[in-house]
Amino acid sequence: MDAESPVQSASRKRKREEVEDSNEKAPRRKIRKLVPPRPFPTVPASVSATGPRSAHTEGKNYICITRRTELGAYLTRCKDVLIKDGYKSLHLSAMGAAIPHLMQLALSLPPILPFPQDEIHTEILTGTVEVQDEVIPDDEDEDISYRTRGKSTVSVTIKVGDGVDEPVAGPVRGSGRKNKLNHGASSGGQTNAKRKQGGQSGDKGSVQVTEQIVIREDELDDET
């Protein structure tokens, strides 16, 4: 191996010193990653965001995949959406480091579904979304700045058959009982109103009978 010449050694040493000087002169700053935008809302607009999750009948087939949830939990959830809830399509989305988790889920889900494999269709779309980061300087006098960077996204759509016969959002749990109570109350109110009307008509008839007084001439007393 050839020995390094003095010129090359001096050049390498000079570059190393320049890098160290630039690192010392560069201001220190902290990077805070902001929450990226979701591909679809957590709760549909037609559903109350403050209500219990069990009352949600729409949007169950739209799932964002993250690394915090295990694959088995996602498999059970997706299977229940297609079988128990009756959906014919499943929309999954992931970004960044969660993309391998989504790919594993998309490959593991079709074999455990009780549908013919030729009726299960999978569509995969790739894309990029812009996310923002906060740049916080150490100097309190300096303002916080923002930087934009791109992040990879993958969307997977799994359809059973034509994938269009999705269930329509039904009434919220408990509304049927409430409607029955309201119907009963209204029926009772109508019955009471009829009774009241009948009572008023009866009273009116009795008043008319008492007002129709017939006096015969032989019953009149002569005034003296």
Automatic annotation (TrEMBL):
Biased composition (Polar residues): 1-10
GO MF term list: nucleic acid binding
Coiled coil: none
An example Gene Ontology biological process: tRNA 5'-leader removal
Keyword field: Nucleus, tRNA processing
Top-level division of the source organism's lineage: Eukaryota
SUPFAM superfamilies: AlbA-like
Subcellular locations according to the entry: Nucleus
InterPro entries: Alba-like_dom_sf, Pop7/Rpp20
Gene Ontology cellular component terms for the protein in this record: nucleolar ribonuclease P complex; ribonuclease MRP complex
Pfam families (UniProt xref): Rpp20
Region of interest (Disordered), ranges: 1-56, 162-224
Name of this protein: Uncharacterized protein
Species assigned in the record: Lentinus tigrinus ALCF2SS1-6
